[in-house]
Amino acid sequence: LPFNYQVQSMIQLIVRRLLFLLPVAIGILLVTFVITRLIPGDPCLVMLGEKATDVQCDAFKVRYGLNDSIPEQFIRYMGNIVQGDLGTSIRDKRPIEQIISERLPMTMELTFFAILFASFFGIVLGVVSALNRNSFWDTLTMIGANIGISMPVFWLGLLLAYFFAMIMKGTPFFIPPSGRLSPGMSMTSLLTLWGMEESTGLPRFAVSLISNSTLLNGILTGNFKLVLDAVWHLILPAMAVGTISMAVIARMTRSSLLDVLGQDYIRTARAKGLIESLVIRKHALRNALVPIVTVIGLQTGGLLSGAVLTETVFALPGVGTIMVESILLRDYPVVQGMVIVVALIFVITNLIVDISYAYLDPRSRVE
Asked: 253: closest CA among 217, 289, 220, 286?
């Protein structure tokens, strides 16, 4: 197909997916909005204590609009979102945008390294298993994959922390069991460095997100010691939350690659005298990647949700820990803001997966 036509088709695909994003986001927000308000418990008693009087609770509900019906609250909330206002935390009295910019970078870094760990080792193990079908290595890999799927995230996290932080203490294999950075390490505020402390709106939010990311902050400020320290602290959490995804990707890679290796064009490539490594890499693996990429995209969303337990185990200040705290304290605006952000990330990830199909499979460009 002509290059211009391919670009036009890709743009149309992106526009269609972005248009689908709006009803999906509204639906997710509506479900979250209703569920949070149907959870047993009075937010007034949670925030003000059990000794709060009826007068105090009435004033509390009027202040936060909780005395209105759920449809009225939802319509008002959607109107605020259209204006770029996600609300204010009931507990901290801070804008939700500020809390998101502080917490989201931690979860995104954890998810990035977890999916990197899961994808690399999952694909490698799946390829090894498929190329050695019904052998000792195939059996060993699949047993390991089944064990990986069966292990709870919180249990694996505690086990890794105990082994690498306690047993390996004092050795070169010691890895810190908790925290985001080592004591004494700190990040430079990019808002201050770039003179944007007085700015508002989207520019401030974007710079605040970058500033609160240890990796981006360290790279932009040239503090590579900070980057290495942050990566060092992310090793165990990424392994814990990425093990299940690694096992799923390994099994999918094995199944997909075995299916491709039985196709006629693989036999033709071998009959033409191509070396086996070229046949596997250029012909077999590339065609097998389409379902694998789909699984990786779905697992990314699972990693965002799995980070809730992992961040709690490793004491990481991310979206997971603030979500748990906010649910227990009935801090509705924080829960709603975090859910909508995670949902948007999940939908955007699926969009990236759809776009990758056009590169991996030329037939999708024709379609």
From this structure: 289
